[in-house]
Amino acid sequence: MTSMASPSYHMLASFTMRSEPGNERLALAQVAEAVAGQGLSAARLERLKTAVAEAAMNAIEHGNKNQPEVPVDVEVMSSDGDIVVTITDQGGAPEEAGPGAEPDIARKLAGDQAPRGWGLFLIRHMVDAMDVTTEGTRHTVTLTMRAGAPAGQEGGRSEDHV
Amino acid sequence: MKTTCEAEVRILPGGAVITLSGEIDGHAADALTQGYARAVAGGDPATVVLDFAAVQYINSTGIALIVSVLARARADGRKVVASGLSDHYREIFDITRLSDFIELFPSLDGAVSRLTEATG
Q1: pLDDT for position B107
Q2: Residue B82, domain member (yes or no)
Q3: What is the ipTM of this complex?
Q4: Inter-chain residue contact B88 with A154, CB threshold 8 Å
Q5: CA A154 to the chain's CA centroid
Q6: Nearest-by-Cβ selection for A105 from B86, B91, B100
Q7: What is the mean pLDDT of residues A57-61?
Q8: Residue of B5, B56, B59, B78 to mutate when probing chain A, most A C-beta within 10 A
Q9: A51 and A59 in contact (C-beta within 8 Å)?
Q10: How many angstroms separate the CA atoms of A97 and A30, rounded?
Q11: What are the structural domains, with CATH classification, of chain A?
Q12: Tell me, what's the pLDDT at A117?
């Protein structure tokens, strides 16, 4: 009898936050604590922390519209050495970003683009993969740091399914 | 959960130094805007140094605030340089291409030496 080579996930932490501005820092700290000892280099830990903070901030502000009683759920898992973090808000599918939404520093400095809009851009560049799924009102961003990826280098690829 | 950012301003020959501390996020808007205003109020500095050595955290909103300060300085005809960024935030300045427009120095001393050279 053979077994399928499906990944097995080991839960490292699971917690829920209120949707209050600034709580992304709590998510960052709790995820950092959960992945301690999981073999992430210091540089890749910093990258994961930035990605988690940005995804949590998006969930609080854009997903849950800063309504404190609406929860943001965070799960931290390991799978064959990969670190997987899911961040779920209750905002359903976000509006599609229009063409030209990719932040461009030259356009921003010229006043052709608003100074803001760096969040998703940063997340994509910080992690090895980012997936976005929506089931009803539950909107989940999944961040993956792969085992064995080079330390301190730009993320190998981005799976942005927005 | 409130965060804090403070900006101290020092006027030097050839430029002004804005020493930032704390966290550069949405709450840092006043500190950055007023810091820049104080840096240019006493004269006409050709260069503004942003020193990040005492900054623990920068998020995407903070990046947007830095872009705004840079845009303002460029409109005023001033150069912006930065010092004291950690390796992680240097990488973020590279990824966002802020480092194409802001010369980065490892230390404040290096950035200040450049000001002195420019006026010497």
Answers
A1: 96
A2: yes
A3: 0.91
A4: no
A5: 15
A6: B100
A7: 96
A8: B59
A9: no
A10: 30
A11: 13-95+119-145 (3.30.565.10)
A12: 92
Residues 23-42 of B with CB under 8 A from A: 26
What pLDDT sits at residue B1? Answer: 54
Assign residue B110 the CATH number of its domain: 3.30.750.24
* Chain A interface disruption, residue of B67, B79, B99, most A CBs within 10 A: B67
User: Does B120 reside within a domain?
Assistant: no
State whether residue B54 sits within 8 Å of chain A by CB: no
The total domain count for chain B is 1
| pLDDT for res A5 | 57
Q: Would you say residue B17 lies in a domain?
A: yes
Give the separation between CA B80 and CA B73, rounded to whole angstroms: 7
Q: What contacts B97, CB < 8 A, 6 or more positions away?
A: A105, A106
Q: Which domain holds residue B42?
A: 5-115
Q: What pLDDT, in 10s, does the model give residues B53-104?
A: 999 999 999 999 999 999 999 999 999 999 999 999 999 999 999 999 999 9
Q: What's the pTM value of the predicted model, to 2 decimals?
A: 0.90
Distance in angstroms (rounded) separating the CA atoms of residues B20 and A154: 27
Enumerate residues 6+ apart whose C-beta is below 8 A from A140: A86, A87, A88, A132, A133, A134
- Which amino acid is it at B25? D
Q: Look at B88 and A105 and tell me if their CB atoms are within 8 Å.
A: no
